[in-house]
Amino acid sequence: MKEEIIIAGFGGQGVLSMGKVLAYSAIMQDMEVTWMPSYGPEMRGGTANVSVILSDSKIGSPIVTRYDTAIILNQQSMDKFEKTVKPGGLLLYDPSGITRHPERKDIRIAQINAIEVAASVGNSKVYNMAVLGAFLKIKPVVSMDNVRKGLAKCIPARYSDLISLNEKAINEGHDSVLIINEI
Predict the structure, then answer these.
(1) Domain-by-domain residue ranges, the chain?
(2) What is the pTM (predicted TM-score) of this model?
(3) 3-class SS letters over 148-177
(4) 2-181 CATH pick, 3.30.70.890, 3.30.200.20, 3.90.550.10, 3.40.920.10
(5) Which helix (H) or strand (E) holds 9?
(6) pLDDT per position as a tens digit, 49-106
(7) DSSP assignment, residue 161?
(8) Pairing state of beta strands 2-10 and 85-93?
(9) Backbone phi, then psi, for 139, in 5-degree steps?
């Protein structure tokens, strides 16, 4: 199994953190992992993306130009990465940041209204975990037990009380994903 993923959006949406939780979760599952972030000089509001590769065998290169999955959280990322999804791949997006919805017919398309999920959980900071939950429902590449372990690795000890809130957002996102185009 090998899954090549791009997660892209604005800085402040938790793009890099989502990739890090996914990467740590895969490490806990004894998988090979690469995590390669890319972001502008702005901390919030600039574009950010992270490429994550999960594999049960050695990874030859962390450089990817075609992805099995694209997780898109804003229009600029949709414009840039929609075309990079491999035919038969998955494009998961949050429609609240999108003005032009995906147009391809040769990929699976799903959406998650993560802002609504985060609001229902009671904390906007878990937006990214709602998106992660949606992804894991469609492609369960790591177990939820390992996601909990990955969260524990990524969340500083002083904020350990937020782990359960993040888990709740993952579960809510898991239950709230909507498949738009199934090929």
Answers:
(1) 2-181
(2) 0.93
(3) HHHHHHHCCHHHHHHHHHHHHHHHHHHHHC
(4) 3.40.920.10
(5) strand 2-10
(6) 999 999 999 999 889 999 999 999 999 999 999 999 999 999 999 999 799 999 899 9
(7) G
(8) unpaired
(9) -130, 90
